[in-house]
Amino acid sequence: MSATRLGGVLAAGGFAVTAELGPPRDPDAAVVRAAGRALRDHVTAVNVTDNPAATVKMSPVACAALLLDEGLEPILQLTSRDRNLMALQAELLGAWALGVRSVLALGGDPVTVGVYDGLAAEVRDVDAAGLARVITGLNAGRLAAGELLEMPTGFLIIGAANPLVDAPDRLRASPNVPTMAELGLKEVTTQSWSSIMVPAGTPTPVVDRLAAAAHAAMTSERVRTHFEKFGTRPMTQQKAEMIPFIEKEIVRWRGVIERAGLEKQ
Known about the structure:
Number of strands: 5
CATH class of the largest domain: Alpha Beta
Order of helices and strands: HEHEHEHEHEHHH
Strand order of the largest sheet: 1-2-3-4-5
Helix content: 25-40%
Largest sheet: 5 strands, parallel
Number of helices: 8
Strand content: 5-15%
CATH topology of the largest domain: TIM Barrel
Oligomer: single chain
Radius of gyration: 21 Å
Distance between the termini: 35 Å
Shape: globular
CATH architecture of the largest domain: Alpha-Beta Barrel
C-alpha cells in the first residue's frame, strides 16, 4: 500500500480535513490550479468529483494531476456510471502512473437527475462495492479478467456512506439500507442540511409568505420524489422549529471544532 498523507493521519487516529473540488465545465487548467493553491495550506487532501449530479465536467484524472503539480494530495472520485469495466481499469492505471494514490469508489448519481437524461446511457458493469473489489485486484497485481500486472498499484481505497443514514426512518429509494439508530449508532451524525434565511428586519408578512411557499414546495410529492433520486429527502421544518434546531447545531459543531483543535476561520 502506498503511503499517503490522508492514510497516515487516519492510521494515527488524527483528524483529517478534506475539501471537495468540483472540476470546471471549461477545459481551463488555471481554474483548477487556483483552487488548489487556495486549499493547499488548509487541508489533508482534496476530493476531486467525477461528473457530479450527472453533468459533464473536466476529467477528474486530469484535475487530480493538476492538483499534484500544485503540491496537493488528490482523492480521485471514480464512478461506475459512465465507464465499462475496461475503461475503469484504464483510468485507474493512468491515475496511478500520474501519481494519484487515493481513490473514492462510487456508483455515481443516476443520469435521470441531470440534463443528460435520455441522451446518455448508464453503464454500471459494477456497483461501488464491485469497483472497490476491482481496485483491490489492481493492488494485488491483477486485472479483472485475470491478466497479471508487473507493477501492481497500491491505492488507498475509500468508500462513501449514505449521507442520510442517520435519518429517523429509511429512505423510500433505499428501503433495505438500515438507519444508524437501527444499527445501534444513535449518536452518529452524517447528514448535512440547508435552509432559506433572510436578513434581520425583513417584514414579517414577507417572511411568512416565503416560509409558506417553501413549506408547500418541500412537502409536495413532486419535490420529494425528485430529492429521492439523489438519495436524500427535503426538510420540512417551519420557522419556529428551525430556530432551536440551528441553535442546537451551533452548540454541537462548536464542540467538534474545539475538540479537534481546528482554527476558526
